[in-house]
Amino acid sequence: MSLNPSSPPDSPRSIRMHAADNVAIVVNDGGLPAGTVMPDGLTLVDRVPQGHKVALTAIAKDAAVLRYNVPIGYALKDIPAGAWVHERLLHMPDARTLDNLPKATAPAWNAEPLTGYTFEGYRNADGSVGTRNILAITTTVQCVAGVVDFAVQRIKEQLLPRYPNVDDVIGLEHSYGCGVAIDAPDAIIPIRTLRNISKNPNFGGEVMVVSLGCEKLQPERLLPPGAIPLQANEALDVVCLQADKHVGFMSMIDSVLASAVPHLERLNARRRETIPASELVVGVQCGGSDAFSGVTANPAVGYCTDLLVRAGATVMFSETTEVRDAIEQMTARATTPEIADAMAREMAWYDAYLGRGQADRSANTTPGNKAGGLSNIVEKAMGSIIKSGTAPISGVLSPGEKLQHKGLHYAATPASDFICGTLQLAAGMNLHVFTTGRGTPYGLAEVPVIKVATRTDLARRWHDLMDVNAGRIADGEATIEDTGWDLFHLMLEVASGRKKTWAEHWKLHNSLVLFNPAPIT
Ligand code: CA
Q1: 511 falls within a domain
Q2: What is the pTM of this model?
Q3: What pLDDT, on the 0 to 100 scale, is given for residue 3?
Q4: 83 and 221 fall within a common domain
Q5: Cα of 329 from ligand 1 centre, angstroms
Q6: pLDDT computed for residue 233 by the predictor
Q7: CA angle 418, 489, 446 (to 5 degrees)
Q8: How far is CA 328 from the centre of its chain?
Q9: Which residues in the chain come in under a pLDDT of 70?
Q10: Given this model, what pLDDT does residue 8 score?
């Protein structure tokens, strides 16, 4: 990456990601007017907005426009040097076929192990580690959501003050459970997502369920015998609202509160202990991306991903439509041909899923992405996959599956922020990192979310929503490496409960949103 001279701060600045690129992006707040002379002598022939691309040389009609040394499009007409290169000037390349992919061909990764880093966490009976100590109430169907909300409020007011070591009580509410084709093959995705979320490490192995009674997703189907460890003769803890014993609404609330007490007692007895950083399970994703996402925040997250993998931890990257155009790089980085095949299988499944809806990966980009300078999904994808760093990819999860081992994983999910976060929760994440350029107040009740701003302007305006300002990289005030290390240290602080994220501070919680590719009835 080359950053042209950064001082004084008001001087025209641009960033080129690779020496072979024929475009760079404009860094200055508010963009740069036509006639601006860049430090290398290039004169802008158009006004170029912040985050948008400027042609560094004349680009002939049909020639490739290169960013990250990858063709992000082909010129629809001759583009002069110094012109604003926007989406209307580009023809998007077709997606690469999934045939003849390189498999596990990348050179060996010789990074030094990183030792000695720890955090204070809650060790669970299954060996996983929580970063928070939360009572989560599993629900089988949306019908019970209002009752569960009411009960959670009561628990917070009447019970929680007696259990000071419990951080929170939440209802795991969702739109699934009835009115769905529950025997359709793809129904396994929402069902295993809910099952695995109930086992997220932040819930301490305590599972209580509120069910309606007549729903398709019966508690035994959601959590069949063996799905969660139970003591001998102990039954799954279920409050069924339609049970004959419930006479009046308050009797239902009383049942939920009575059921919560033993769980709260056990959670309250837990204490944080010193845990190696290898027990962190970090889900990374981006949302509200702009052209700086792939220049500042995502590369810093990628550097941090490498630190985490070197420390023996687990990192998941996701967002299938943002990986599709980089599949060749990804399968090359797989540790085995089988892992490469699994990635290609997830891509093929998703291509078919989008095809059933008469869409393709190009449906991913938003008006905000484009206003932020991202011309198309190819450009967005190249900036998105940088979050995965450089480590080998040692595992692949289908949507809703739970992690089985440590290391860098591709967890296949839609790029939709809430669905990706929900599926990473199911996989077992205990810490979430979210980068944003346009800005989103995203947060989850289940796990701390560290938000990383791509631009100083966003970090300044949203100073009490953004946890890290990676815009300092574009400002020439910090390096990708510094910012990656800062993020790593912040993760250990947040995981230990010594520091709250802004989303936790304000209690900003997005809903769980299930990925249900199966029919609704
Ligand atoms: Ca996303």
Answers
A1: no
A2: 0.95
A3: 62
A4: no
A5: 20
A6: 77
A7: 30
A8: 21
A9: 1-9
A10: 63
